[in-house]
Amino acid sequence: MTQQLTPAAAWQRLQEGNARFVASDVSHPNQDASRRTALVNDQHPFAVIFGCSDSRLAAEIIFDLGLGDVFVVRTAGQVIDDAVLGSLEYSVSVLGVPLIVILGHDSCGAVTATMNAIETGDMPTGFLRDLVERITPSVLTARRAGVTDVNTTVIEHTKQTAQRLVDSSRVIADAVEGGSVAVIGVSYRLDEGNAVLVSGFGAL
């Protein structure tokens, strides 16, 4: 059963799918009528992917996956809020998912907006301001390390998001400590199409 995969095996499966995507040799698994029917009453995803809402970052496509393979949560700039935490805790405690992937990407608009707000002092209005405020600590951490370009800042934000998730959720932190779950940060490169591991908590 897919829910019994180790965190390392789950990551290996994602890497293999991404390699097929990069090589334009995708197999489009689990996308037929029989798979659809088999999933009517139950689901056993082997990973949860918490990524940015960017239209260029469709998790099932870049990892060559199908129905029921992964549990996907998306917000602009992969920003954590209570709904995200609840969704990720559900994936671990109810669905038994062994791997949580924090998926960032090059040229992220939310990170760029945050960098601009810090640079100019002009904060956006509405709920976009809340988004920027949640990303600001990651941008400031990158700045302290001498990082000023958006793509390297996104990598730092991905790392910080993984750290924040483990710090914020006792359910997830306990699962990582117990060895049943790993949390990893992954950066997606838009031009090449490859997903690169940038951080991790738990054994892979």
UniProtKB/TrEMBL annotation:
GO terms for molecular function: carbonate dehydratase activity; zinc ion binding. It comes from the Bacteria. Its cofactor is Zn(2+). Zn(2+) binds at C52, D54, H105, C108. Catalyzes the reversible hydration of carbon dioxide to form bicarbonate. GO terms for biological process: carbon utilization. Its EC number is 4.2.1.1. It catalyses: hydrogencarbonate + H(+) = CO2 + H2O. This is carbonic anhydrase. It comes from Arthrobacter pityocampae. The keyword Metal-binding applies. Binds 1 zinc ion per subunit. The keyword Zinc applies. InterPro entries: Carbonic_anhydrase, Carbonic_anhydrase_CS, Carbonic_anhydrase_sf. Belongs to the beta-class carbonic anhydrase family. Keywords: Lyase, Metal-binding, Zinc. SUPFAM superfamilies: beta-carbonic anhydrase, cab. Pfam families: Pro_CA.
